[in-house]
User: Fold these one by one.
Assistant:
Number 1:
Amino acid sequence: MELNFIQLLIFGIVVALATVIGGWVLFPSGIYKNYKKSLKYLLALGAGFMLAVTFVEVLPKTLLLWQTQKNLPDIGDTFYIPMLLFLIGYLLTQFFEHTIAPHFHLGEEVHTDHQIPVKSAYAAIGGLLIHAFFDGVSISAASQVGSEIGILMFIAIFLHKFPEGFTIASLVLATGKGFKEVLIATSLVGLTTLLGVIGFYLIGTNLEYTVAYALPLAGGVTLYVAASDLIPEVNHHGGKNPLVSISVFAGVALFFLLHYVLHLYLEG
């Protein structure tokens, strides 16, 4: 069973709002202080959840698609193309984030007394726009495989949207801009995620086999965000605090719990 357009639209709106709220928390000082303390745990939880979604849901579902669907190209090995697409998704994210538009790591706070050039901030946000678009594609592509994997992918994306909004706001504030510019930047990134959700839904439902190509590509992006963006941040901010590392395992455990609950609900 696939998720319908209204459900996907709601998912897209929720993750877009999460980006905006993640930037907004930099302004009320009380909320900021509490959020700053919990940020490393949220990063770790999101990393564990995203890793579990990638390896337990996205990768197996991708291989199943390429094994069962007819008329897909076969270059000697049935799984050569989907694995290549996983790698391309991973490398594309590396390319856009750290070559075309390098940006600060997720969750890194930058204070306004440490100024950075406006062009650097815009370039960084440009990289995040590419990232955000593929977040939306990931939700939509996963949902066209099945409602269970779609919901799990939505949760995985949702968990790292707050730190992403925090990062965007930090970049904007570091250029000397204020609340208005933060709201514009976070809204733009949030809307780009929503555009990815809607855009792929419209394309994927009209072009046969699109999901067989989009799912592994989006899976590579998700793997990069979890393993190369979030995990290094967890290691950096966690220091010697074992609770941060444990939060990664808590994210994996949360995935299996929700996976079990969704399976019972959807199958029942």
Note: The two ends are 13 Å apart (CA to CA).
Number 2:
Amino acid sequence: MNYVPIPVDMLETGKPLPVDVWSPNGQLLLRKGQPVVSAQHKEKLKAHNASSTEGDAMAWQRSYERMVHQMLRQGIDVQVVAKAPMPSEIREIDHVVVKQINGGWLDLQDVLRGILYQGGLAISPLRRLAAIEKKALELLKHDADDCLFSLYQALADDSLGYCATHALLSTVVCELTATKLGLDEFQRQSLRHAALTMNIGMARDQDSLARQSSEPTDWQRNLIEIHAEKSAEILKAFGMDDPDLLDIVRWHHAPEDSQALPQNLSSRRILSLADSFIARTAARKTRSAQSAVKAVKSMVLGAQGEAIEVGSAMAQAVGFYPPGSYVKLYNGEIAVSVQRGARANTPWVISIIDKEGMAISRYVCKETLELPLSIHSPVNFENVRVTVNAEKVHLARKRIPH
């Protein structure tokens, strides 16, 4: 058993400890729930090199960091924050041991789909969601353009299901936008968790709605109306007690003029716009997909204040022609966007259909800064009859100069 020294000087006298306290050789000094009773008691613990298990230490540290973050957000003076003792409670989610998920976005999609479909009956959801988030961040840090490409391509494939793809793409778009806007890690973490789970209250029905050729029934409209609150309740039952996370999920569909909206929750607006943006760019049996350019215009048209700032940051983060989407070039070729460019409207692309309508087998990345390779117009997924080879795209992108 590995033991980690605990910060004895930061323990509050009279408050119960949230962990068992051990000596480095495994002797139990204090049981979880017992308090430090005096200054002399603290000195005795220090003399015995009071420690906790490695798992408890990590959970306690996460709980402390969250407490400090909340105090700073509440405007508490930094001198007061610096003197704050270790918390006497540890949230359940801080004890979650994150397992590694191997593979790429489609593997994450399989795991997430299972959790979303199970809803409130999901087994070990916190551990599994934490593993998804960890792997998603690793993939995003390694190659954000590949993340966007993989997920936008998956969005067009209804055989993969819609709910999990939408959730993962929302997570990526939210993380890129929040980073551009300068949100801190705790805010981004709440936002990521919300993006992954915002539709857990209607996941199966979300997939059904994406495939059905008729308008939603009255029952489905009611589910759409209540799903945000239902999702928040499911997450709360999981043990997710982060108030920002629950508020983001609960209010992500609320109108901007709603009197019940929490104040100063920028993350909620980011998720609301990302959710709408991705939904607009996904095709339905009852309508065609909107282009990203049109979806961006829809987001900012008539918007005011912070909504314009968030919409602009999202457009810059993702681009007008996100990797994985299709465009027509001025030379008549149809191309797939594969990497964001110097500007939102100048991505790197690979032509896949020539101007005569024939498939192009040799993949070459092209910059769209100037005619005749600049972009003429977006092209809907359903109008492209050629399958894009993701591995060839990956190899071609390696030749883009950096």
Note: The mean pLDDT is 89.
Number 3:
Amino acid sequence: MPKRFIFALVIVQAILTFLHWLMYLEVLALFPTLAAYKTSLAIIILAFSFGFLCLSAVSHFRENFVIRVLYVIFGAWNIFVLYFLLGGLLAVILKLPLFLSLPFFGIGVLSIAIVLTVYGLVNARISRVTSILVKLPNLPPAWNGKTAVLVSDLHLGHILKTGFARKVVKLINSQTPDIVFVAGDFYDGVQTNFQELADEFKNIKAPLGTYYSSGNHEIYAGYQKCEQALTAAGIKILEDAKVELSGLQILGLAYKSETDETVAERLAKLNIDPAKPSVLLKHIPDHLKAVEKAGVNFQLSGHTHLAQVWPFMFITHKVFKGYDYGLNKIGNLQIFTSCGVGTWGPPLRVGTKSEIVKITFQPLNGR
């Protein structure tokens, strides 16, 4: 296991432990009668702080019903802790404890945290359609009015399984797309039945096919296994490759840790024709200046999840320089970043949505 990865795990666990310590202090402050059991309370809360990472490690190699249930419980627990702490902090700032008895105030904070956590679990399973109109220069008449569906970050594995994949496929088909794009993280990165999950996508009804480029979680799962399963399911792999359909160039870049220079080099090898419109599948919405300079017209990305739970989207917005969600532009390059249809880590969404994206193509300025 790489030292960098181990270091990241230690940092994450240290943060979780610190947050649980703060929760312990907040519980004692809000419910003074529990002070008589503070030792037991401390042990229980400390133990829970290790639950999610332990289950994440176990689920990487094994999957069964018990592991799945515990993973969901501990994932939801961590989000509950977050909102319990935020609720207490907000209430202190607003000086609400001055007007309410502590136990009554504590029950209010506890209730809000529970409601938000339950809402997050339910909201993550309700997939929606986001529709956008994209105008491309020199778009051939054959593509005028045609539709594509973008799906990213399914994270199929031990939590989101064939039932979820089937629902996503049904939602995709309901949009009657001409073509489907999958912008990475089809799998979650755990060991699972790769073929069974990919086979659900055989049921997609898109006359021009389904095209895919990889995300970072395919690397975690074992890229060769993922590629074999997706190919067997009839999904066309675009890894540093280009296909042309009726005058539209469809490009795909494999997931790699890279720089502006390496992105430029890889795109140059694809021999992009600047006189023809192009769509690029690239999992992470970064190195956009290099992509724009290469002559790409439209990039489709995912990866960010828009942080999944509020308020962390303020971090993704900063990290990805405003390109963490939605349709944006840099120079002549349009980019759409989806917040994804699946979940990673805690299987919740608060302040974000599970989405597929319907794209309608039109020519720019009627040409």
Note: The chain has a mean pLDDT of 92.
